Amino acid sequence: MTELRKNGVAADFSFGDKGIKAAMKAANRSGARYALVLGERDLAEGVVQLKDMGSGEQTAVGINEIVAELESRLG
Predict the structure, then answer these.
(1) 3-class secondary structure for the chain?
(2) How far apart are CA 5 and CA 17, in angstroms?
(3) What is the pTM of this model?
(4) Which of 8, 12, 37, 39 is the most buried (most CB within 10 A)?
(5) Is-contact 49 60, C-beta < 8 A?
(6) Whole domain around residue 44: which residue ranges?
(7) How confident is the model over 8-63, as pLDDT tens digits?
(8) In what order do the strands lie in the sheet with 58-62?
(9) Domains in the chain, number
(10) 39: domain CATH number?
């Protein structure tokens, strides 16, 4: 989150008691173009799921590459 914000990417997060469905609805209502989904298995593998909120397409992206990936998609 901090790295995204440092690089000029507006970012917010949701965790805890909210289920994934509620979190995706909140992201959609906020107008987010992309959502990052980080589960325990993903983190263990060093990836995050990048979801395009418009198309619904979801892609695994390396944690260290997510800032560059979002900058290229948003740029």
Answers:
(1) CHHHHHCCCCCCCCCCCCCHHHHHHHHHHHCCCEEEECCHHHHHHCEEEEEECCCCCEEEEEHHHHHHHHHHHHC
(2) 24
(3) 0.83
(4) 37
(5) yes
(6) 2-74
(7) 888 888 776 778 888 899 889 999 999 999 889 999 999 999 999 999 999 999 99
(8) 34-37, 47-52, 58-62
(9) 1
(10) 3.40.50.800
